[in-house]
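User: Could you go from structure to sequence for me? I need the amino acid at each position, not a summary. Structure tokens:
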């Protein structure tokens, strides 16, 4: 017979799967709002703890919102309802909904953000891009993943796969590289990943899928790739790694269903159960895109699915 867990039980299970000690030193993870003594019957998972998602949680009547991005990453001196973040805290408290954050600790975890993204893109034979030891099952964990597609693809076809696998956003999918080139080895990192381009190059990846790539990082990476290809005597089509840039929200969204299923599994292990939902609100902040004339379908990529 299963029972209803307390918030303290749910936090303990989440902390075990996404250890706060594995979060980056600058990060702010764990329980943000809520009384550990309260019961938790239903949980909503979302990428961003923005007002729209909080409204969804309160409309659904859930007891806990598990978010990927921190609400209070930057220090604050007040959570009064006179600021956006204060209004969110106030709404959660009034609505009896707790808030828990799993951010960089979920990025690196087994079945975390990186694994979910790699699975969405059909990658096999994976390993961490930046290893950080072993997870609970003994599998290597760490930031990002490097794997391979089951069959070689053109960069164009691979970009189509990325677009189809992730939620549709106004940005869509941006690509840097020869669309007719063949790719097989893929590096992925959900969220902002331009700081790991050197690690991607060292891993020998043909293409790197991440988000928030900046102009200078992309320009320098492509110049380095072209220089290296020339030094090897290769054609420019062999100038890897190619880059595939997605919306930040989209690259992290696949993890939500993993986290929901794993929470149910882990709570059943201690004789308790909860209902889970994945947020249907698209929290990518960009709302519109105006394509340059003649470039509307330059890659032929398709839109992804809606969350």
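Assistant: Here is the amino acid at each position, in order:
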């Amino acid at each position: 017979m299963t029972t209803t867990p307390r918030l303290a039980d749910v936090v303990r299970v989440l902390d075990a799967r996404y250890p706060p000690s594995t979060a980056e030193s600058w990060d702010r993870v764990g329980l943000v709002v809520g009384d550990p003594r309260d019961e938790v019957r239903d949980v909503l998972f979302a990428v961003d703890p923005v007002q729209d998602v909080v409204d969804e949680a309160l409309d659904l009547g859930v007891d806990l919102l598990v978010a990927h991005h921190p609400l209070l990453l930057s220090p604050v001196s007040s959570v009064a309802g006179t600021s956006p973040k204060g209004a969110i805290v106030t709404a959660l408290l009034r609505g009896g909904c707790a808030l828990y954050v799993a951010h960089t600790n979920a990025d690196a975890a087994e079945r975390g953000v990186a694994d979910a993204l790699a699975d969405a893109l059909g990658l096999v034979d994976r390993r961490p891009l930046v290893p950080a030891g072993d997870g609970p099952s003994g599998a290597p964990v760490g930031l990002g993943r490097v794997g391979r597609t089951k069959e070689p693809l053109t960069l164009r076809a691979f970009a189509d796969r990325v677009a189809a696998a992730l939620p549709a956003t106004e940005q869509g999918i941006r690509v840097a590289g020869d669309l007719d080139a063949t790719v097989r080895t893929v590096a992925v990192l959900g969220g902002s990943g331009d700081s790991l381009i050197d690690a991607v190059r060292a891993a020998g990846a043909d293409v790197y899928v991440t988000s928030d790539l900046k102009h200078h990082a992309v320009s320098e990476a492509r110049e380095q790739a072209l220089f290296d290809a020339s030094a090897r005597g290769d054609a420019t089509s062999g100038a890897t790694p190619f880059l595939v840039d997605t919306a930040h929200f989209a690259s992290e969204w696949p993890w939500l269903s993993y986290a929901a299923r794993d929470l149910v599994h882990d709570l059943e292990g201690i004789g308790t159960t909860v209902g889970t939902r994945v947020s249907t609100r698209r929290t990518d902040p960009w709302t519109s895109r105006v394509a340059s004339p003649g470039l509307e379908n330059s890659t032929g990529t398709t839109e992804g699915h809606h969350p």
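One structural detail worth keeping in mind: The domain at 7-106+252-278 is CATH 3.40.1390.30 (Udp-n-acetylmuramoylalanyl-d-glutamate--2,6- Diaminopimelate Ligase; Chain: A, domain 1).
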